Amino acid sequence: MLKKKCLSLHEKIYWLVLVLTLFGLLMSFSTTYTYFFTSSNVSPYRDFFKQSLFALAGFFSISVISRLPVKFWKAMALPFFTASCALLVLVLIPPFYSTRILNESGEVARRWLNLGFFSFQPSELVKFGLILVLSRLMTMHKGRMNFNEFLKSLLILMIPVVLVFVEPNFSTAIIIFLLGLATMMVGATPMKYFFLTALPVSGLGALVLFRSERLMNRISSYQNVFLDPSNSGYQVLQSFIAISRGSWLGKGFMRSSQKFYSLPEAQTDFVYSIICEEFGLLIGIVVLYLYFLLFFWAMQVSLRLKDGFSSLLAAMIGFHIFLQAIMHIAVTIGFLPPTGIPLPFVSIGGTALVVYLVEAGVLIRLAKKAEFCV
């Protein structure tokens, strides 16, 4: 009797990430070829080829990173985080940010660092940098963290949150804050410290919220999309229409009508709506399940690792990807206000795709360290 060979965990993670990325390339073509009809002299393959190049770069990174020792990332935690925060400062200086990206109010969004021949979002880098530095800090003080060390960790967390918030990029600032908070909690930070700082942090957040007209408009449209269906509730309403048109089985690949003129940012912030319109809600549920499966496998890796840094790093990489996916899907179905969150591995965006694939490479390396067959 031949023993049936099953895939090891790191192989399962690799193939799952590959499936999600290939599906993302499929959706990148479906959602961006429309520029050929809505803009002049634009190749229908332009964005698809660009995204494909980033995907190739990301998988090349996986092949390298999955061979690096874990101690490399432990040593690089502080330098990586410091460099990504420095880039966040740089992107706020007028000569360095791209002036081509505007927010919904018509203001320049200082999110893209312009290098002339290339531009990218430092905020995507700082998410991974924060995971690295907090994972190292939490494992250094695990079981003996005092209040001063907690405040130091909280200050490290708030540096990128504030820098991203003033870009302004509210959704990414929230994700960074939740990611850092989760890392500190899972890293065995005493809960009493969170209770002590909850009131002032919540008060500061509420003050910022009520002073921002844009954020209040988003919340009001979230509470009732039909109050202002042609303005603040427009995107979510069009997302509802896309999902309802797809029904259970979808209209067919590239047959979405909402992506042409009706649904803004169909290739990034609302790509899940187009997935449901073209492939149906059943495939939409399958996509959600794949993200849950990746998170579940990341937790398995985390639980099998003996080293505190490696264990926390694996858990937080899985949590980061799953958190982004859940928040993206929640926006498209009206559970959260429209916040501009891309779907990992699927939405158009070269910087984000490469960072997700780098994180996947680290997770694969950690899975190799805790090798077992499930």
How would you portray this structure in words?
By secondary structure, the chain is an all-alpha fold. Helix content is 66%, strand content 1%. It contains 14 helices and 2 strands. Strands 1-2 form a two-stranded antiparallel ribbon. The longest helix is centred in the last third of the chain and has 25 residues. The model has no long low-confidence stretch (mean pLDDT 85).
Low-confidence stretches: none
Estimate the helix proportion, in percent: 55-70%
Secondary-structure element order, N to C: HHHHEEHHHHHHHHHH
Please tally the helical runs, counting DSSP H or I stretches of 4 or more residues: 14
Which geometry do the CA atoms define?
globular
What is the number of E strands? 2
Radius of gyration: 21 Å
Compute the separation of the termini in Å: 20 Å
What number is the mean pLDDT? Answer: 85
How large a portion of the residues is in β-strands, by DSSP E? Answer: under 5%
Q: What structural class is derived from the secondary structure elements?
A: mainly alpha
Largest sheet properties = 2 strands, antiparallel
Please list the strands of the largest sheet in the order they lie side by side. Answer: 1-2
List descriptors.
single chain; 374 residues; mainly alpha; two-stranded antiparallel sheet; 14 helices; 2 strands; 1% strand
Short description:
The protein is 66% helix and 1% strand. With 374 residues, it is mainly alpha-helical.
Write the layout of secondary structure elements.
Layout: H1 9-32, H2 35-38, H3 46-65, H4 70-90, E1 113-114, E2 119-120, H5 122-141, H6 147-165, H7 170-186, H8 191-211, H9 213-223, H10 234-246, H11 271-279, H12 281-304, H13 308-332, H14 350-369
Antiparallel strand pairs: 1-2
Helix pairs in contact: 1-3, 1-12, 1-14, 3-14, 4-5, 5-6, 5-7, 5-13, 5-14, 6-7, 7-13, 10-11, 11-12, 12-13, 13-14
